[in-house]
Specification:
CATH topology of the largest domain: Rossmann fold
Radius of gyration: 23 Å
Number of domains: 2
Length: about 250
């Protein structure tokens, strides 16, 4: 079973500095997107069960440190393809880049796995777009997968319940965090991962024509507090509190 995993290097949302309502993304470290780790884990489990290989493809759209991908390789992936030079936050262009790398580099695949959405932008658009570019079926939001012969079954986690769907391989599948618990590679595995093959692909060598999607601005949620102090006896103070709450539309 030849499995390809799409991995995004996302901003670490727990360490993004904030200045007023501005997110200082240029000062935030990057990491392997959390849900993509679930996709890597599922790919490695499939390899362990059926044999074959796991190939990671990462399209770099922001700050990049090659060593961060060592975590994905240490978890059990065999090699990685890295596409640099693609700026912005356009999921259509990201999906097109992955499809073009697969075609240009002759990457064989029976299954392509993605996280349901990246832990920073969470557009949930790359997987179905990639399936469209490759003209193969897709299953999204899978919390459980079963493979039998040339058929893959996915249990989709929806707001209203569960949906069981199946399709023939090859296919693109996006997984949720409920599908597994990603393994934590040892220091030795991470060190060995540094010797695994990482192949860089120039974005200028790819056909990246895609619909334009521009992210204009990202603002932090800022909660403004009234900071009003009520003094005096209890009953008059309560009446004043109620009056202010009504004025602000909190109560009617």
């Amino acid at each position: 079973m030849e499995v390809v995993v799409c991995v995004k290097l996302a901003y670490d949302e727990t360490q993004i500095p904030i200045e007023g309502d501005k997110l200082l993304l240029e000062k935030a470290p990057v990491k392997v997107s959390d849900i993509d780790k679930n996709a890597i884990e599922e790919a490695v489990r499939i390899k362990e069960k059926f044999g074959g290989s796991v190939t990671v493809i990462s399209v770099v759209t922001g700050p990049y440190d090659e060593t961060i991908l060592n975590e994905a390789l240490a978890m059990g992936a065999d090699k990685a393809f890295i596409v640099e030079g693609i700026g912005g936050t356009n999921p259509a262009r990201t999906a097109k880049a992955i499809a073009e790398v697969i075609r240009k580099m002759g990457i064989k695949y029976d299954l392509i796995l993605c996280g349901e959405g990246s832990s920073d932008q969470y557009s949930c658009a790359v997987a179905p777009m990639l399936a469209e570019y490759l003209s193969i079926p897709s299953i999204t939001f899978a919390g459980k997968l079963e493979i039998e012969g040339n058929v893959i079954r996915g249990e989709r986690l929806l707001e209203t319940g569960y949906e069981l769907v199946e399709t023939e391989l090859p296919a693109v599948v996006s997984v949720t965090s409920e599908i597994n618990e990603p393994r934590i590679p040892s220091v030795l595995q991470i060190m060995k991962a540094g010797k695994k093959e990482k192949i860089s692909v120039k974005s200028s060598d790819l056909n990246l024509e895609a619909p334009n999607v521009d992210l204009v601005e990202v603002k932090a949620y800022v909660r403004e507090r009234l900071r009003k102090k009520f003094e005096g006896n209890l009953e008059p103070a309560l009446r004043e509190v109620i009056s202010v709450l009504r004025e602000k539309g909190v109560i009617s």
